[in-house]
Amino acid sequence: MRQPFDKKSVACKTGNASPKIKGAAASVMRSKVVSKPKNSANNIHYVLPLGNGWVIKSAQSAKFTAITDSRAEAISIGRMMAQTDHSQLVVHGKNGVVQIRESYI
Which of 34, 58, 67, 83 is the most exposed place for a label (fewest CB within 10 A)? Predict the structure, then answer.
């Protein structure tokens, strides 16, 4: 059975319609909020061929994140970045076609 509404448990600030929260709900509200990851749809890490090497580029950045000589090293770095950012990794081949697509969202 529901308890009747107790006016003493909720107090409104003058000029503000939002009530003060008391008790267990207040402690939950004050607890540390876990930050959400960045917008994962826009946070994609690409591994792309560049000349004789490979580059890692974030979709949110105009500059390359890293430049490597080997494809395996570029994939390893890109994978680590995607896992850290809870985002996606997209690896292109020498011909520009997407060969690997991994999601860590």
Answer: 34
92 within a domain of the structure (yes/no) = yes
Rounded Cα distance, 54 and 82, in Å:
17
* Residue bearing tokens 């009530």: 19
**Tokens representing residue 47 in the block:** 């591994």
Q: Show the tokens assigned to 8.
A: 């003493």
Distance CA 34, CA 13 (A): 28
Q: What's this model's pTM, rounded to 2 decimal places?
A: 0.60
- Residue written as token pair 């680590």: 80
Q: pLDDT of 52-79, one tens digit each? A: 999 999 988 889 999 999 999 999 999 9
Q: Identify the pLDDT of residue 5.
A: 47
* Cβ neighbours of residue 3 closer than 8 Å, sequence gap 6 or more: none
Assigned token pair, 24: 């267990």
What pLDDT is recorded for position 62? Answer: 87
Asked if residue 27 is part of any domain, the answer here is no
Number of folded domains that form the chain: 1
H or E segment to which residue 25 belongs: helix 24-30
